[in-house]
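Bench notes, afternoon.
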Amino acid sequence: MTTLTSTLTDLHKDLEQHNQDCKDVVVDLRFIKFQSDDDEQCLIDSSDGVKYLFKASQDTTATHALKQLCKMVGVPFSFFQENRPPVRESIVNNWLKAKAPKEGEETLFLIRVREGQDVNVVRAILPVTCVPLSNEAVLKAISNYPEDVTIDLDSAVGAERDALVFQARLVYESPLEGEEYFPGVIITNSEVGASDLIIDLYLIHKESKACMAAEYGGKPFAKIQYSGVQPAEALELLNSIPSRLKEEAPIYLESLKEYEGSFPTVERACVLLSNKKGVPKKFKRSIHLEATECHDDMGTLKDFIRHAGLVAKAYDYSDRLKIERAAGSFGGLAYSKK
């Protein structure tokens, strides 16, 4: 997963361009046949003859979509994978027959495709009651900030075409009054159903770019499981985020100041932070090594969390965020329940 853009405007343009040839197709399970040979794997809708092609097996999006297909028909994916293509075809189609719905049962599902020249490439296979928002729609909604607030892009991963998970870090251009921290928002989303829509509110250190994310009971600010959620509901929440962050950020900073007085030794802080729920095991070694090399610069809560955030930047997007949530918890950053 790579960062493709340097500004929020560029990111909007990239995501909009990626979506130009995407569409959702509702199909009926009763008319679907799976075809598999050494050259390709696809679904055929016998009601209209349309073919929906899976990319090459080494493509991560294709693998994810095939896992969704197997889950839908009830075939264990590991069993599917260990067989030759012609056998896979028999397995899936036999299970499709065995899964033939009874009268009155739901037979529709959704195929999220990218239209190419004479071909529809499968991006995801989803229930009709679980349709994720596009990354473009999510970013557009959360960028609808108040007139007195300017937000810019700090970083983005998974912004390339058909990535499984997209994550963007947006930061306010103005720091909290008289402070060295900027408030920001982290968006995690998947157009293909590989992740829920997750919103984290965070503080970012001006110079080092180290982050700490707020949480409440170990949970992010918002986590929307798309199943059964209407797009309008998700968009309404997203539209409220910038204003909410403007209210919450000063509270986070006050919590950080309150916890400053209870900061233990650097060594003890390393143990407490690395034992936080969700923190990757390999972080324990990393933070202790950082403490060995930078001990004299980690003697306050703010400085310790800043260094923890710097260490976290070396991890992938998912583990980095887990560490930043733990750092926020360690510093007393908790969003208010309202």
